[in-house]
Amino acid sequence: MPIVGRDGQWVTDQRFRLQIQLLKILDAWLGRALTLMLLSPRLPCPPLSNADLSAEARILLIRPGGIGDAALLIPAVLALKKQFSSCRIDVLAERRNARVFDLCPAVERVDCYDRGTTLLQVLRRRYDVVIDTEQWHRLSAVVARLIRSEMKIGFGTNERRRMFSHAVDYRHDRYEIDSFLDLLAPLGVAPTPPEEPFLTVPEEAGDEAVRLLQRLEDRPFVALFPGASIAERRWGREKFRELAAALARQGRAVVVVGGPEDREAGDFIVEGLAEGLNLAGRTSLAGSAAILQRAQLLVAGDSGVLHIAVGLGVPTVSLFGPGIAEKWAPWGPRHRVINKQFDCSPCTRFGTTPPCPIDGCCIADISVAEVLLAMQALRAEDDRKE
């Protein structure tokens, strides 16, 4: 699972993994108890009109979870800033996704609620609006309830709805960017589709990318990301290696991106390729974004790296199986989604995937030929526009 440390570097610290599991266990028991028994529900109040919220409002967004959710939240941040130009937007995130917000200049401050002393500091502040963007787990809703603010917005998917003054419906067949925009309806913000790109790469990250890509001598390249947070979402390093070899025969360069846990797979994928470069584990998160920004396109499974590429306006070929394509797959003519649509897929709900009795065939059965055809279709689309 890709995790980003305080300095923006990808890390694979076992302590983070254990902490994530502990948070899920605490949420299942303590979170439910707090929402049902220990905290009184917030009384609902009517939606606001534009005139009800000052342009200088202080707004806090709570975003636990992974990198992909954080990246797809950015259009909602930008919509808030567009509607309330002088508002201050803070984010309460986790250490594993906090650095995504370095790619959004509209965010003024990022704190991490899995740092105890930091959470206490946030609880002492006052905000005009708190928006909990978590989809299912309850602890973030409890945190939203405890932070001083009159207006509290969040998804009403379970007992967590008791914590909000405005509980918003959540649908599994709605693109996640649009779901996050739905949270702004109580503020009178219209759910306008975002323009790409909606992520901004810092200048120093661009310099890092130029240095790392120097060996390619400005040759166009295809980015490959072989990783995923769970095994069932991985296409397999053998398939990626076969794809890389096919691209090399077409005269196209290949760059593997990802965290340290993807480094070994990256070496395997580009082994023997004169124009193959493995940068997995060698960049910061922002540096990876800068590399993706320079790619012709990205091939990846359902992952945070995929959603960052979408936010940068990079064409993608995405491989789906367990995940809900209607909710997580990129939309639009610059993206191609390959989904075998097995009867048992999608099987993932609220980030949880059950053990697979057929070894993830829904994604493993995607062929290299199908990926090459999707890439060809993207290329034809670009040629048609030119």
- Average pLDDT rating: 88
Tell me about the biggest sheet? 6 strands, parallel
Question: What is the alpha-carbon Rg in Å?
Answer: 21 Å
Largest beta sheet: strand ordering? 5-4-3-6-7-8
So what's the CATH class of the largest domain? Alpha Beta
The helix/strand order is: EEHEHEEHEHEEHHEHEHEHEHEHEHH
Shape: globular
Secondary structure: helix percent: 25-40%
The number of domains is: 2
Instruction: Give the helix/strand class.
Output: alpha/beta
Could you say what the CATH topology of the largest domain is called? Rossmann fold
N→C terminal distance: 39 Å
The total strand number stands at 14
Residue stretches low in confidence (pLDDT < 50, at least 5 long) are none
CATH architecture name of the largest domain = 3-Layer(aba) Sandwich
GO cellular component, one term: cytosol
Keywords: Glycosyltransferase, Transferase
Protein name: ADP-heptose--LPS heptosyltransferase
InterPro entries: Glyco_trans_9, LPS_LOS_Heptosyltrfase
Provide a concise account of the structure shown.
The chain is of the alpha/beta class. The protein has 13 helices and 14 strands.
